[in-house]
Design brief:
The complex is a heterodimer of chains A (378) and B (358). Chain A is α/β, with parallel strands linked by helices and 378 residues long. Chain A is built from 15 helices and seven strands. Chain A has two domains: 310 residues, Thiamin diphosphate (ThDP)-binding fold, Pyr/PP domains (Rossmann fold, 3-Layer(aba) Sandwich), CATH 3.40.50.970; 41 residues. In chain B, α5 packs parallel to α6. The chains are: A alpha/beta (378), B alpha/beta (358).
């Protein structure tokens, strides 16, 4: 799954702006960006990296059952998320912490999910950033169905940049083997949905390499479904932004679905329960650390004149976010018993009500028992 | 259903006496016109048409449901009437149908999916049980899932493998789903509309053996609640409970038993999740004897659940253990031996005899 001459890259691993010939058609989107945007991208990546490190510590300190780290994938996530518009709908997998940050969710929601105080964590209607989906690939069909609805509603191709809507779904290289992802590609092609499939190929589905998922580069697969595709250097936030911006534009304009394969790498473990030293080599890891998405943008920004003060401010802001997450994580209590019975159904349900009442009475019976024991002692 | 009733009974309240008389005459005429005899399959068609007319967010989707009208013709003519965007021929992929219906429901649509045959639902099982059933709970109520999944199910049609199964227990076991099954054309007409109006996902099991026999449908009637069970025949000595095509066997058994001098009450469950226990318990308090019958295999089944619950709640009323009549715990057999597999009136009568022997 190495890069080839077709892989779109703008910002090299060394931090030089050297667009590949394959990047040409996407450059107009990049050229709309200003240095302020570059700085924003950098701040986004720094923030989510600090958040991710803090969350990993919190898990290790027993505050969460599990944490899926995002470190290393910030370039793919920040560029693509920054290319979306408020009216666009995003269907994430479960590692898209940077996308959630940019779409405006309270990142504590992800902590709550992983801690076990909720199965959700946020209200998607507030940000159009849908809930994490833990069954691999399932969300691809939800995104496609949603995009069918967008099209049926006529919210595509009107030329109004504030209402024409696209849907973007994130998934990983492992998910491409799931039938649901293939079925989503079939439906998307058949109904010409306004949709972008955003694949983060981080090269490992837990311990299984991408070569086991596919014998051909994954960006070629959607072409068999009749869906155009582009492979990008996923650690190049500019490539991610420019290519996603064009694909989302095409989707909103009614030109149908597209597919982006972002080549990236998870620097950490699959989750905190994983041990990547059992299946990855130090050399491979080191080669990807050299291609870090944050460092290369820092190099580029310094070349443009960003000074220590800027980077110091970013670091401070990121540290504040992490500290705030830590402080609030430590105040998360046990959810009320309603978490079991609330919203199992939208409409009243006799079994749920009966069991809710039974549990309340059962719990109350302990109070009565201890009260009577107290009474006897007195 | 309120809107539907209003649409039927119509106009503003009349004032004068003459107007009242005219109105009564109109209403009587309307009521007479509104009772039609049709097969269950046509009643479903009429119910779906009504739902499509009443709410433009209702969509039908499935394999071959458009031009062909579905392999059982339940959706016949609906695509022509409502267009390809409301009655959607989907690619041949059950998980895709359910998964995209979930996305459409998130967008505010009310999708009604047709699964072609019972045994073809399993490719969509993950999307139904891990997603559709749990999404409202996961979202803590900020999203509803008004999705109906229609499943032609059960035997008696002499079909090949995967075409005659009764998989309803899998779904009744899953929290977040509602599971219903009509046995008459009238129930089919109303229950499909109630299922579509529900904000929860509803598994709608259609007894395909009952698609063709005709019955009266009261197009202006007052529908009973979706999850209410129904006393299909009153009796005093033994209670029979079943759903779908099984209800026909129970009524046959009750008729034969009556000729032999035994009074049997028959309850049509209509809803398998939740189960409306009120009429069942009331009946058991009266008869003291209960036989539950179903086409599905008996192990870990809806019938087993009813037997356990009735034993818990009506123990001192029971004169005999609750008996189950069901399909065998073997795969649905090749069609030429299905009559041995499927419980019939004789097997029900045998259970009645065993119950009375205690």
């Amino acid at each position: 799954m190495a890069e080839s001459e077709t892989t779109v890259s703008l910002l090299s691993a060394e931090g030089r702006l050297e667009p590949t010939p394959s990047a040409e058609q996407f450059l107009p989107y990049f050229e709309k960006l200003t240095e302020a945007d570059y700085r924003q991208f950098y701040a986004d990546m720094a923030q989510v990296r600090a958040f991710d490190a803090e969350a990993t510590h919190l898990q290790r300190q027993g505050q969460m059952g599990l944490w899926p780290p995002s470190t290393g994938q910030e370039g793919a996530q920040v560029g693509s998320a920054r290319a979306s518009r408020p009216q666009d709908h995003i269907f994430p997998s479960y590692r898209e912490h940077a996308v959630g940050l940019i779409r405006g969710i309270d990142l504590l929601g992800i902590i709550e999910l992983m801690r076990g105080t909720t199965h959700g964590g946020w209200n998607p209607q507030e940000t159009n950033f849908h809930l994490y989906t833990l069954v691999i690939g399932s969300q691809a069909l939800h995104a496609t169905g949603y995009a069918m609805g967008v099209k049926f509603d006529g919210a595509v191709g009107t030329g109004d940049p504030d209402t024409d809507t696209a849907v973007m779904v994130y998934f990983g290289d492992g998910a491409t083997s799931q039938g649901d992802v293939s079925e989503a590609l079939v439906f998307a092609a058949s109904f010409q949905t306004p949709q972008v499939f955003f694949l983060q190929n981080n090269h490992w589905a837990i311990s299984v390499p991408v070569s086991t998922q596919s014998r051909v580069p994954l960006y070629l697969r959607p072409r068999g479904f009749g869906i155009p595709s582009t492979q990008i250097d996923g650690n190049d936030v500019f490539a991610s932004y420019a290519v996603t911006a064009k694909y989302l534009d095409d989707a909103r304009s009614g030109r149908g679905p597209g597919f982006i394969e972002a080549l990236t790498y998870r620097i950490g473990a699959h989750t905190t329960s994983d041990d990547p030293t059992k299946y990855r080599t130090d050399d491979e890891l080191a080669s990807w650390v050299e291609r870090d998405p944050v460092l290369r943008l820092e190099t580029y920004l310094r070349g443009l004149g960003a000074d220590d003060a800027f980077f110091g401010d970013v670091r401070e802001e990121a540290a504040d976010l992490a500290a705030d997450i830590r402080r609030r994580t430590l105040t998360l209590g046990t959810p009320p018993v309603g978490k079991i019975f609330d919203h199992v159904y939208s409409e009243p349900h006799p079994v749920i009500e009966e069991q809710r009442e039974w549990l309340a009475q059962y719990e109350a019976s302990f109070d009565d028992a201890s009260a009577s024991v107290e009474g006897e002692r007195a | 259903m309120t809107d539907i009733q209003t649409a039927q009974t119509g106009e503003a309240a009349p004032t004068g006496q003459a107007t009242q008389a005219a109105h009564d005459a109109d209403a009587a005429q309307l009521a007479a016109d509104s009772i039609q005899t049709m097969p269950l399959g046509r009643a479903l068609n009429a119910g779906l048409r009504r739902a499509l007319q009443d709410d433009d967010r209702v969509l039908l989707m499935g394999e071959d449901i458009g031009k062909l009208g579905g392999v059982f013709r339940v959706t016949e003519g609906l695509q022509k009437e409502f267009g390809e965007q409301r009655v959607i021929d989907t690619p041949l992929a059950e998980s895709g149908i359910i998964g995209t219906a979930i996305g459409l429901a998130m967008r505010g649509y009310r999708p009604v999916c047709e699964i072609q045959f019972d045994g073809f639902i399993y490719p969509g099982f993950d999307q139904i049980t891990s997603q559709l059933a749990k999404i409202t709970n996961r979202h803590e109520g900020s999203v509803s899932m008004p999705v109906v999944i229609r499943v032609p199910y059960g035997g008696h049609i002499g079909a090949i493998e995967h075409h005659q199964e009764s998989p309803e227990a899998y779904f009744a076991h899953t929290a977040g789903l509602r599971v219903v099954s009509p046995s008459t054309p009238n129930d089919a007409y109303w229950m499909i509309q109630e299922a579509i109006a529900s904000d929860d996902p509803v598994m709608f099991f259609e007894p395909k053996a009952r698609y063709w026999p005709k019955g009266e449908v009261s197009l202006a009637g007052n529908p009973v609640p979706l999850h209410a069970s129904r006393v299909a025949r009153a009796g005093t000595e033994v209670t029979l409970v079943g759903h779908g095509a099984m209800v026909t066997m129970l009524l046959q058994a009750a008729e034969i038993a009556a000729q032999e001098g035994t009074s049997v009450e028959v309850i049509d469950l209509r809803s398998l999740s939740p189960i409306d226990y009120g009429p069942i318990l009331e009946s058991v308090h009266k008869t003291g004897r209960l036989v539950v019958a179903q086409e599905a295999p008996g192990f870990v089944s809806v019938g087993s659940e009813i037997a356990a619950t009735v034993t818990e709640r009506a123990f001192y009323s029971l004169q005999a253990p609750v008996l189950r009549v069901s399909g065998f715990d073997a795969p649905f057999p090749p069609a030429k031996v299905e009559s041995l597999y499927l419980p019939d009136a004789d097997r029900v009568l045998d259970a009645i005899d065993r119950s009375l022997a205690y």
